[in-house]
Design goal:
- By secondary structure, this protein is an alpha/beta fold.
- Helix content is about 40%, strand content about 15%.
- The longest helix is centred in the first third of the chain and has 21 residues.
Length: about 325
């Protein structure tokens, strides 16, 4: 029997005070779907305040739950402020608690929000090499504790799908946060909107498209059993352009979108001189029926009419930051 998300089904969303958690709760409630927000921090979208590491709290939270979207995590921006053990305890240990309690509660679908950061060093080719073509078949080589913890949590999800017949979909999601880049040189050379517009061609996705993918995953999880997908705005680039993208990316963009140069020049914008990786989300489109709306082409269309290229959902969720502390040398400490 096909599994369908209905208004009578209660969905547990972890990380409800965060960017994606809030976006999910807003969207689910607007669609009149019953959703319960869980987070360590109180917020207008958090119904249950507590830690995913607390088994009793999680067990109680699973009451009457039929589907789980697990978006709570320590992120890359926390690498410089949190210990390795905290990443292990939260991102791996917390995921394990949720999986075990989801099985005990006979949950029918589990969606885990992972990250393209799990690919790690596989994203950065050696100097002089073509840009990397990143599909789900690329083997991760985590470069920090964040990547290690998310990849390990993905592996737990796959194990539970096999051993416990828990339908699970894992998403490796590319950048969707509105905060400034952690690279000081990017911040110096490009205003935020310029950098993020560029990224829509190869390493960024709008939060509204991330939400739509998660809702689709709830509907498709049972049929899939287990699935792992990259969620990133569809790239306009092809594999045969990887050498050119590494050496002269603007030339490739100019060939595909001749109008881009004038639109950028009017704003004092420029495209990155080179691109080191391209995220490929074609499998999610083909297997989930995902239909993202916010890509590089849409962004250019918005520039023509002087519209904000972000979705209304991205604008209403806005910037949340990652720390209570303000840092003098960037949005967060990099390590």
């Amino acid at each position: 029997m096909r599994f369908v998300v209905t208004t009578a089904m209660t969905i547990l969303v972890t990380g409800s005070a965060g960017h994606l958690g809030e976006a999910l709760l807003r969207s689910l409630r607007e669609a009149q779907r019953t959703a319960r927000g869980l987070d360590l921090n109180p917020s207008p979208f958090t119904d249950l305040v507590g830690s995913i590491r607390d088994r009793k709290f999680v067990r109680d939270a699973m009451t009457d739950i039929r589907a789980v979207i697990h978006a709570a995590t320590l992120h890359k921006p926390h690498v410089g402020t949190h210990s390795n053990q905290e990443f292990i305890d939260t991102n791996i240990g917390g995921t394990l608690v949720l999986l075990e309690e989801a099985v005990a509660a006979a949950v029918e679908a589990f969606v885990f929000t992972s990250t393209t950061s799990a690919f790690g060093s596989a994203l950065t080719p050696a100097p002089g090499q073509p840009a990397a073509w990143i599909t789900e078949d690329v083997a991760p080589v985590p470069r920090n504790i964040y990547g290690v913890s998310k990849f390990a949590a993905e592996s737990l999800c796959e194990l539970f799908a096999r051993r416990h017949d828990l339908p699970i979909v894992v998403f490796r999601v590319s950048r969707f946060f509105p905060e400034a880049d952690d690279d000081a040189e990017v911040r110096r050379r490009y205003e935020i909107a310029n950098a993020q517009a560029n990224e829509l061609s190869y390493r960024r996705v709008d939060i509204a498209d991330v939400v739509s993918a998660h809702v689709l995953a709830l509907e498709k999880a049972r049929a899939l059993g287990f699935g792992r997908y990259i969620i990133s705005a569809p790239t306009p680039f092809d594999r045969d352009e990887l050498v050119a993208l590494r050496h002269d990316a603007p030339k490739v963009v100019r060939r595909l979108f001749p109008e881009y140069e004038g639109l950028y020049k009017a704003r004092g914008w420029s495209f990155f001189p080179e691109i080191d990786r391209v995220y490929v989300s074609r499998r999610a489109v083909a297997e989930l029926g995902w239909s993202p709306k916010y890509d590089f082409r849409q962004m250019l269309d918005c520039l023509v009419t002087n519209r904000d290229f972000r979705s209304p959902l991205a604008r209403v969720v806005g910037s949340k930051g990652y720390h209570a502390t303000t840092f003098s040398d960037g949005p967060y400490p990099v390590r």
